[in-house]
Design goal:
The chain has 1003 residues and is an alpha/beta fold. Strand 2, helix 2 (54-63) and strand 3 (78-81) form a beta-alpha-beta unit. Helix 7 (153-162) packs across helix 10, helix 16 (389-402) runs antiparallel to helix 25 and helix 20 (455-471) packs across helix 32.
């Protein structure tokens, strides 16, 4: 039975009252508050220890307002949370300036520099780890202050009696008293805390504690509230409002002592009521009823209490309680979603999702987004601002800023440029139309050239692409150059050894403005909150404005502050509301239905992370929270939730990630045992069944549709794809499907290959020019010619690789590997020259045309063309020439390629193209009769005799004839639109982009 509200007496002492935390808790509390108002003829001040029930209590006060109230108390009694009550302290604006979290972290940073002992302890920490450790230090210092500062309460009250709150003298006296108390306590605590780690913590506490700390301000606020009651001019106790303290959760012992002392003092001037929760008829487990004993351990219950708990269980079980076990994570999320949907269908308007398993709750939230605006979702679990799209975009800017002076990686560059808040047109001062497709073009160039990092590498890749465009009748893209130069300037602004905090903030604002991100963030809900968080770093008028730190330290601090911030969703009207909240936030609140996800033995109960510095025993000494206290509180929270709500679904995952079985929470198991013959049935989630018949996957075969265009140009690589696997050609060339390009790990051979091709062309062109000089050193014999060639090839190699190395130092290893090859390559070239061959030209586009008749009788001209690496001519035979192809791979791979030359007829295509159009190949009157692959990675360790540099195609005339017949047959079959089947060997399929479509390996 609920207890009646006590009758106010003349005795100046705190009166206790208890309410039963069941479904009628809010009604009991509202009726009691109105009772107090009517007895005292005043509006009582109601202060809640936690803010969760605030709205519910105000609604209940309105609902249960007594009729015919005295006009003096007609307004609702004031209900306020403890934190808001402290902030509303009279004259609080005159308190010492409240230190922000950022300022307290900076105070730790400053003290690290001042005190070598502290610095040595932190030296092993990374930037991010150091700020996390700083937060732990601050929390621990607050715990120590909570123990010490109550010793100041008497002095604070005396100071308030004798000094005006707005005098500097008062502040100095407070600071002096604080220093005295800390100095005394420091010695006493040191005796109880003797290890090195705690000694360092005490030193921090001594250096950091000041009158701007939250703990100090809390005590100052309570003192001023009490002083206001004491300063009542009329000395009439009826002039001071009654005070009702509602304890919605078990307090820490130190907090209990503080509030008990305050209530006792306030009771001398006005009626005071201490409202507790009576668990006698609500507790479903022994710890929920017994609580903690005098030693702060879980108390034992006697036989009568055991009977009471059993009676509570039997009378509290509702038909709406359901136990559901899911096998997997995704099934658990779907089960939670379906449970919520079932309650919505049953016309439940106010539903709670208790997130014991926060990941599953997040997944369920995503699934519920399908319901659109009909369901309002309120996330009270502390949705991190860092998880929003705006924060991710801002983080891409920070990663760009953090990059080394040589430049960022291509991935970091593209991630920044492609973030939705970057305004490309604003940054380049161009029209949006000019910027269309610019980022996609940049990505294609960087990926194709595998330009992975560094400003010089990016510029070289763009210039190479622009040069290729010019040589093929196109125009260079100057906007790409401007874009890289803009981002480079932005990055360069941050390349300083040390930054002053105020200057760093100003520079960050400038960067946001230059990139257009500030304007776009302002228009986004999460972005606007992010900008508000960044304003905390405006230290221009604070004590830390000139504090200097390294860029990585400042950026890590920035990220830490954003990580600590929560995102607040805007409210909206909807047919129903779903509140996602922790178990602790369900206290003294009403819900139509509750779904608790994560009720397995690993997650219920869930304990907060243990303090970094304090053991559980030391926490008891500090009168702080202990594991036993958290266990008891959660048992009570769950009891209250089950007893007060008729519709509760308890869900858990019955198998862990590793497949091991997971049992439900011990509380659920004990509840089942207590129910004896009528335990609650554990149900399987009712998910929507999916029916269908599966068929084995067969080899992929496709027939090109009549409306599907057949290409009229075929490159050597496309023809090789057709020979390797017709289905691969169908996917890549006919459908035009491509795997999303990405940057591979390490330094890719394709970029090295492009660079080697370019420097070899430049070298051989220089060689041809030098040979025309009659007095050149290369005419002074083989040794002189050899040395000149080696020196020049070294020079051109250094020159061509210079920019790449400036952009990515890893490229230096590729250059050194090639330079080891140069003497051997020159020796091979000299031997080739001794047989009469001379370099003629390089990088020429050659090809030939085929006339085919399609199934409709229409003649089609198909162009087969590619870009040949090199052509040689013979000095003694004016009618012959040779085509060569450089390969940046070893000779063994080249030999394997030669075994299937008709399937990879790259050199045959070049040879036929040059023979059919010798003018285009700059070979008038000559016929290509030789074709060779040349390796740029010869095996030097095998000796000169086994060091094979080139591999020729044997039987060229026969192969050319076979190739000509073969290509006509293949292209005729293509134009006839015959079925294209996937039949390639594993060696081809291993790296095939179309494998995910044809499903090789599954048929």
């Amino acid at each position: 039975m609920p207890q009646p509200f006590p009758t106010i007496s003349d005795q100046k002492q705190v009166q206790s009252w208890a309410i039963t935390p069941d479904a009628s808790a809010l009604e009991q509390l509202a009726m009691g508050i109105w009772n107090c108002a009517m007895q005292t003829k005043q509006r009582p001040l109601v202060v809640l220890s936690t803010a969760g029930p605030l709205i519910g209590i105000r609604a209940a006060l309105e609902k249960y307002r007594p009729p015919d109230l005295d006009p003096k108390i007609a307004f609702l009694p004031q209900v306020i949370s403890f934190a808001d009550w402290l902030e509303a302290a009279p004259g609080s604006w005159k308190f010492p300036k409240k230190q922000t979290d950022l300022e307290r972290w900076l105070a730790v940073f400053v003290n690290l520099r001042k005190h070598k002992k502290l610095q040595a302890w932190f030296k092993a920490e990374s930037e991010a780890g150091a700020w996390g450790l700083a937060q732990a230090v601050i929390d621990a210092c607050d715990a120590l202050s909570e123990l010490v500062v109550p010793q100041l309460q008497g002095e604070l009250n005396d100071l308030l009696n004798s000094h005006s709150l707005d005098t500097e003298v008062w502040l100095k006296k407070v600071e002096y008293v604080l220093d005295q108390a800390v100095a005394k306590a420091y010695v006493g605590l040191s005796k109880n805390v003797v290890d090195e780690e705690s000694a360092v913590l005490l030193a921090f506490w001594r250096y950091l504690t000041n009158v701007g700390d939250p703990v100090i301000r809390k005590h100052l606020a309570m003192s001023t509230h009490l002083q206001m009651a004491k300063d009542n001019p009329s000395k009439d106790t009826t002039a001071v409002r009654p005070f009702i303290w509602v304890q919605t959760a078990d307090p820490k012992p130190i907090d209990q002592e503080l509030i008990d002392r305050y209530l006792a003092d306030y009771a001398q001037w006005a009626p005071v009521f201490h409202v507790n929760l009576d668990w006698t008829t609500v507790a479903l487990w022994a710890e929920a009823l017994g609580g903690l004993d005098a030693e702060d351990d879980i108390a034992s219950v006697n036989e009568a209490e055991e009977h009471q708990i059993e009676a509570n269980i039997q009378t509290s079980v509702h038909d709406g309680w359901r136990l559901l076990a899911a096998n997997r994570f995704e099934e658990l999320a779907w089960a939670a979603t379906k449970s919520i949907e079932s309650h919505l269908i049953a016309d439940k308007k106010n539903i709670a999702l208790v997130a014991q398993d926060r990941l599953a709750a997040r997944r369920a939230r995503a699934l519920l987004s399908r319901l659109g605006g009909s369901l309002r979702i309120r996330d009270e679990t502390g949705w991190k601002l860092s998880t929003t799209r705006a924060a991710a975009a801002f983080d891409s800017l920070l990663e760009l800023i953090r990059a080394p002076k040589e430049g960022p990686s291509a991935s970091i560059l593209l991630e920044f440029l492609q973030n939705p808040y970057f305004d490309l047109a604003h940054s380049l001062q161009k029209t949006p139309e000019v910027c269309v497709g610019l980022l996609a073009k940049l990505e294609d160039i960087l990926v194709a050239s595998q330009a992975k990092s560094g400003w010089e590498t990016f510029m070289a890749a763009i210039e190479r692409a622009n040069g290729y465009a010019v040589s093929h009748g196109g125009s260079p893209n100057e906007q790409l150059i401007e874009l890289i130069q803009f981002v480079k300037r932005l990055h360069f602004q941050w390349q300083q050894t040390l930054l002053e905090c105020a200057d760093a903030y100003s520079q960050l604002q400038d960067s946001l403005q230059e990139t257009g991100m500030f304007q776009r963030l302002e228009k986004d809900a999460a972005g606007k909150q992010l900008l508000e968080v960044l304003q905390r770093f405006d230290l221009s008028n604070g004590p830390y404005q000139e504090l200097k730190m390294r860029l990585p330290e400042w950026l890590s601090l920035l990220k830490t502050v954003i990580e600590e911030a929560s995102y607040e969703e805007a409210g909206k009207e909807a047919q129903a509301t779903l509140s996602i909240l922790p178990l602790s936030s369900t206290r003294v609140r009403e819900f139509d239905a509750v779904v608790v996800v994560g009720c397995d033995e690993q997650q219920l109960p869930a304990f907060s992370e243990p303090p970094l510095f304090f053991s559980d025993a030391l926490n008891r000494y500090l009168k702080s929270s202990t594991i036993a206290a958290q266990y008891v509180q959660q048992a009570r929270d769950l009891s209250q939730l089950l007893v007060s709500c008729k519709n509760v679904d308890l869900l858990w995952q019955s198998k862990s990630k590793s497949g091991e079985p997971l049992r439900p929470s011990a509380w659920i198991q004990r509840l089942q045992v207590a129910l004896k013959k009528t335990p609650l049935e554990v149900l399987e989630p009712k998910l929507k069944p999916y029916e269908g018949q599966s068929q084995p996957i067969r080899m992929a075969v496709s027939t090109p549709d009549q409306d599907l265009a057949i290409p009229t140009t075929v490159s050597p690589s496309a023809y090789k794809a057709l020979r390797d696997c017709p289905y691969r050609y169908y996917v890549s060339s006919l459908l035009g499907l491509r795997k999303a390009k990405e940057f591979e790990e390490g330094f890719d051979a394709s970029l090295a290959g492009q660079t080697l091709h370019a420097l070899l062309k430049n070298f051989f062109q220089a060689l041809k020019t030098e040979e025309k000089k009659p007095h050149s050193v290369i005419h002074a014999g083989d040794d002189a010619r050899r040395q000149w060639m080696i020196d020049q090839l070294m020079h051109y190699s250094e020159k061509e690789f210079e920019r790449l190395i400036a952009g990515d130092a890893r490229v230096l290893g590729t250059l050194r590997d090639w330079q080891k090859q140069i003497p051997s390559f020159v020796d091979w070239q000299l031997k080739r020259e001794n047989t009469g061959w001379r370099y003629h030209d390089a990088e020429l586009t050659v090809g030939f045309n085929l006339m085919l008749t399609d199934p409709d009788g229409v003649e089609r001209e198909i162009r087969i063309a590619g870009r040949a690496d090199r052509f040689d001519i013979h000095v003694s035979d004016k009618s012959v020439a040779a085509v060569m192809d450089y390969k940046n791979q070893n000779i063994k791979k080249i030999t394997n390629r030669a075994e299937n030359v008709l399937d990879d007829p790259q050199l045959l295509i070049y040879a036929r193209g040059a023979n059919e159009n010798s003018i285009a190949a700059h070979l008038p009157g000559r016929t290509v009769q030789q074709a060779e692959w040349v390796t740029l990675k010869a095996e030097l360790n095998k000796g000169e005799e086994k060091n094979i540099r080139a591999h020729p195609i044997e039987n060229m005339p026969e192969l050319m004839e076979q190739f000509s017949e073969q290509i006509v047959q293949d292209l005729n079959a293509l134009w006839a639109r015959k079925p294209m089947q996937a039949f390639a060997p594993d060696s081809v399929c291993q790296y095939c982009e179309a494998r995910g479509i044809c499903r090789k390996g599954m048929w």
